[in-house]
Amino acid sequence: MSAAAIGLADRLKIEPADTADPQDSLRQQNPLGKIPVLLLDDGRALYDSRVIVEFLNDQDGRSILIPSGEGRYAALIQQVLADGILDAAILQVYEGRYRPEHKHEQSWLDYQRGKVDRALEAFGKQLPAPGEGGPHIGEIALAAALGYLDFRFQGYWRDAHPGLVEWLDAFGQRFPAYEATAPDAK
């Protein structure tokens, strides 16, 4: 989404990766075996969304993804909060994926769910305002987090947060790359 926001999406080639496959080239590109990874023409690999977004923002030069001035900190705080939603949601998924059901720790799952719910509540009180020139990283990260909750948790958050549902619908209408980058249901 970030590359699309600044008009660079057509310069990138998206390749699937299997984070669970020890033979996937991803583990050579990023020793942590995590996505995303941006491979540069000179062979260097940039990994972690924050680093990649910083790189794209610098390449573009217009400060759309990461605004300059006062708007910078609001966008970065929104990014961190949305990333926290994703981190807590992923930990819940991993508990189900990598631990036998009889070893699931409900208090751990509740702890992670609480993080997600508190962050959603905070966003509901102060939604990201549209960036000038295109969506900024706070908007993009929130849309990604909400999309992930829809994808992995069947949109459980929607009934409790109608303002976020409205915000996401408006974001998707304003920024078609949101739907275009949605994962296939698996």
Write a brief caption for the model.
The protein is mostly helical and 186 residues long. It contains eight helices and two strands.
Quickly list its features.
2 strands; Glutaredoxin; two-stranded antiparallel ribbon; 2 domains; Glutathione S-transferase Yfyf (Class Pi), Chain A, domain 2; mainly alpha
Would you kindly provide a written description of the structure presented here, covering whatever features stand out?
The chain has helices spanning 2-5, 26-29, 49-60, 70-98, 106-125, 137-153, 162-174, 177-180, and strands at 37-39, 45-47. With 186 residues, the protein is mainly alpha-helical. It has 2 domains: 2-60, 3-Layer(aba) Sandwich (Glutaredoxin); 70-180, Glutathione S-transferase Yfyf (Class Pi), Chain A, domain 2, CATH 1.20.1050. Strands 1-2 form a two-stranded antiparallel sheet. Strand 1 and strand 2 form a beta hairpin. It is globular and about 50 Å long. The two termini are 20 Å apart. The mean pLDDT is 95.
Write the SSE topology.
Layout: H1 2-5, H2 26-29, E1 37-39, E2 45-47, H3 49-60, H4 70-98, H5 106-125, H6 137-153, H7 162-174, H8 177-180
Antiparallel strand pairs: 1-2
Helix pairs in contact: 4-5, 4-6
